[in-house]
Design goal:
Elements (H helix, E strand, L loop, with lengths): L1 H21 L7 E8 L3 H9 L1 H7 L1 H4 L5 E5 L8 E5 L6 E10 L3 E8 L6 E10 L2 E9 L11 H34 L7 E5 L2 E11 L2 H22 L11 E4 L8 E10 L11 E5 L2 E10 L4 H14 L3 E2 L2 E5 L9 E10 L1
Antiparallel strand pairs: 1-7, 2-3, 3-4, 4-5, 5-6, 6-7, 8-13, 9-11, 9-12, 10-11, 10-15, 13-16, 14-16, 15-16
Protein name: Polyketide cyclase
Organism: Epilithonimonas mollis
């Protein structure tokens, strides 16, 4: 009994000390942090205003395993949003872009779990030639009396997260710059020939209305669905899977309904628990291919050129492959590599 009284007295003393200490801790906290990325501001800002890109390198998300994501239109800039959650719904929340001024400033609101009070995160972009200086201003949510101790470590945690994120971003931009240089050297609208290696795709089978307003929106939806699954559910980094590809029968491009497969190349089969996703092997083949840039619906003219060339050379063709060389978005032109397997 004495021990019980002793434990109670100790607990009350510790709680009293904690209560007194918390009187000197603000219910919310604001702090700033400065960082720098060795790339121009136009390339850096793109990674911040597109939440699909942002969640792939920001350590707050990429440093956690098992998170899945849902993104909402307009997908980038002011008004875009995303939800994130682990499988057991023990860690979840929402991220919003409330304000975006191109290459200058961006404001996020981050809600954790069911908390109605968000983190406010303002980032200012300062161009410095081929480098970009970032000024982070972070305001933590108001916390209850018993939770205020979290404010004592909030700044250290955020600074650590930002520093790790900047390293991830630098690596991603390095890969992106190499890719941009290759894209810049592409010759469009000319039919070429190559031997295409075989590969293994993981993706979804889709059937949708084949109209200008519906088709591309459906492609964007399934693009997000496949990449979210590969990144979040399978835990794959961007360098662990290949360029997204859409496979369809070119003979059906004028039908009212269009069926296609949308997937990304993986190096080997992995266990997949979601029945909506399946593997599709693509055999090695000789292909006619052409690069296209413009509105997605305008690609049909180039596809017809491939079919005409095949017919002229008295060859048969396989299924059409459309590779998205850049991330497709609703308000941007697409860059595609259109490939048509040919054989006698």
């Amino acid at each position: 009994m004495r021990w019980l009284k002793f434990v109670v007295v100790i607990f009350l003393c510790l709680f009293g000390i904690y209560s007194v200490t918390m009187n000197f801790v603000d219910e919310s906290k604001s702090f700033t942090h400065e960082s720098e990325v060795a790339y121009p501001v136009d390339k850096v800002f793109q990674q911040f205003e597109n939440l699909q890109d942002f969640s792939s390198w920001n350590d707050y998300f990429s440093g956690k395993s098992g998170l899945s994501y849902t993104y909402f239109q307009p997908y980038e800039g002011t008004g875009s949003a995303m939800k994130f959650s682990d499988k057991n719904h023990e860690e979840f929340g929402d991220l919003f872009i409330r304000y975006s001024n191109k290459n200058r400033t961006i404001r996020y609101q981050l809600f954790e779990a069911d908390d109605d009070n968000p983190y406010l995160i303002d980032v200012r972009f300062i161009p410095k030639g081929n480098k970009t200086k970032l000024l982070w201003n972070i305001h933590t949510p108001k916390r209850s009396y018993l939770e205020r101790s979290l404010n004592l470590v909030a700044e250290d945690l955020f600074v650590e997260n930002i520093d790790k994120s900047m390293k991830n971003l630098y690596q991603i931009l390095g890969n992106k710059v190499d890719k941009d240089q290759k894209l810049a050297s592409i010759k469009y609208d000319s039919i070429m020939v190559e031997n295409r290696p075989g590969e293994l795709l993981l993706g979804v089978n889709v059937s949708t209305k084949n109209t200008k307003d519906v088709l591309f929106k459906n492609v964007l939806l399934n693009h997000s669905k496949v990449l979210n699954f590969v990144r979040a559910d399978l835990g794959k980094k961007d360098d662990e899977f290949g360029i997204p590809v859409l496979i369809t029968n070119p003979a059906n491009l004028k039908d009212k309904e269009l069926s296609y497969f949308y997937g990304v190349p993986l190096s080997k089969r992995v266990a997949v628990s979601d029945n909506n996703f399946n593997f599709k092997p693509v055999n090695e083949s000789r292909v006619y291919y052409i690069y296209y840039q413009g509105n997605y619906n305008g690609r049909v003219k180039n596809i017809q050129e491939l079919l005409k060339r095949t017919k002229k050379d008295t060859l048969r063709n396989g299924l059409l492959m459309e590779e998205f060389l850049e991330e497709p978005a609703g308000d941007k032109d697409v860059k595609l590599k259109l490939s048509l397997p040919v054989f006698r």
